[in-house]
Amino acid sequence: MHQKLLKSAHYIELGSYQYWPVLVPRGIRLYTYEQIPVSLKDNPYITDGYRAYLPSRLCIKSLFILSNETVNIWSHLLGFFLFFTLGIYDMTSVLPSASASREDFVICSICLFCFQVCMLCSVGYHLFSCHRSEKTCRRWMALDYAGISIGILGCYVSGVFYAFYCNNIHPSYLTQQWQRLRPIIFCSVSGYGVIPTLHWVWLNGGVSAPIVQDFAPRVIVMYVIALL
């Protein structure tokens, strides 16, 4: 049995530890900072323990080896299971025992779901950042940032909801006095989307660009429908 373990052990170059025996799937090795692709060189102070040049299958298998991404991967993966467990516990025990309203259930569900998405996206990025395709790595990085944005959204929605939980709508909001002000408020909120739309038009070469001419009418129709 001992000999079989030794045969399955691969000596992996890990910085100053030239031969460090670690039980890992065949085909995986660790690299120093100087050996990895430029796209992975984010922090020169992390000198070794890098995974690189791996296909998707070995990226997944590298979940169970010790590298400089191990803590990142497992902390987010365990975080996902933590929020998943909290979600089940809150929905089945905490909120019902507190006689929570339907709105409380919705807000808590949105919040915990956003946190879970954030954790999973980070797991995916840290797990597949060593992929042999730089394009794949970039896509996972973009997904990680999207997950962070979704997590922030979860904090924002729940924070705003409970911060103003005891405050009712302005007493004059639905009165005749605010009849003209209400449309202005809604138009202002809708108009906020014009800024990124103009930025998108500029990035794509202006109104004469084919992609802008294809999508701009659809965007305009959406705004018209919203105003109606």
UniProtKB/TrEMBL annotation:
<comment type="similarity">
    <text>Belongs to the ADIPOR family.</text>
</comment>
<dbReference type="Pfam" id="PF03006">
    <property type="entry name" value="HlyIII"/>
</dbReference>
<feature type="binding site">
    <location>
        <position position="126"/>
    </location>
    <ligand>
        <name>Zn(2+)</name>
    </ligand>
</feature>
<keyword id="KW-0472">Membrane</keyword>
<dbReference type="GO" id="GO:0016020">
    <property type="term" value="C:membrane"/>
</dbReference>
<keyword id="KW-0862">Zinc</keyword>
<feature type="transmembrane region" description="Helical">
    <location>
        <begin position="140"/>
        <end position="165"/>
    </location>
</feature>
<keyword id="KW-0479">Metal-binding</keyword>
<dbReference type="GO" id="GO:0046872">
    <property type="term" value="F:metal ion binding"/>
</dbReference>
<dbReference type="InterPro" id="IPR004254">
    <property type="entry name" value="AdipoR/HlyIII-related"/>
</dbReference>
<protein>
    <submittedName>
        <fullName>Progestin and adipoQ receptor family member III</fullName>
    </submittedName>
</protein>
<feature type="transmembrane region" description="Helical">
    <location>
        <begin position="104"/>
        <end position="128"/>
    </location>
</feature>
<keyword id="KW-1133">Transmembrane helix</keyword>
<keyword id="KW-0812">Transmembrane</keyword>
<feature type="transmembrane region" description="Helical">
    <location>
        <begin position="71"/>
        <end position="89"/>
    </location>
</feature>
